[in-house]
TrEMBL record:
Keywords: DNA recombination, DNA-binding, Transposition. It comes from Albidovulum denitrificans. Residues 186-196 have a biased composition (Polar residues). The keyword DNA-binding applies. Pfam families: DDE_Tnp_IS240 (PF13610). One of its GO terms (biological process) is transposition. NCBIfam families: transpos_IS6. This is Putative transposase. Residues 145-161 have a biased composition (Basic and acidic residues). Coiled coil: none annotated. Residues 69-174 form the DDE domain.
Amino acid sequence: MKGYRFPREIVAYAVWAYHRFALSTADVEDLLAERGVIVSRETVRKWVNRFGHHFASCIKRDRPDVRGKWHLEEVVAIRGKKHWLWRAIDADGDMLDILVQPRRNARAARRFLKGLVGRFGAPRVIVTDKLRSYVKPVRELAPGTDHRADKGLNNRIEGSHRTTRKREKRNRPIDAADQAVGAQFHGSSSSRRLIL
């Protein structure tokens, strides 16, 4: 990569490890040092900020058709205030999309669902918690889709919040919406296809 001291494979590995395992930049620095790569945690932070979104967009672009079952869920604290991290995953647990909004109402649900349906088409099934804000947007934007609203059915996406919760517990609060969106990279990084 032009203008960078390290090859793209090292940068890609550092960004992937940071998001995939909810590591701190110091943890990634130690991980790279064990492999003989001496890099500062500030450099790792810059790589994450510079390339994290790019990796996520490449993975989203190359994603196969996902019209089966979607799970939708939300909630995150940013700078101590509650925001809604609207996330959708498919039946395989791969992240479809993510959106951070300050409100949790039908308008916010509609905005999120409109982007999903526009990008992927209507799914066969949508599983949500019992938030009533989903009912009207699902009926309008995805007619014919089976909407299953039950807290117990949505365990798949509850598990996908693990990285966000780990980060909060390690006293690393989310300071901005784009850090919350970084979780999108984590959710779709299990394939390890990192394309620059």
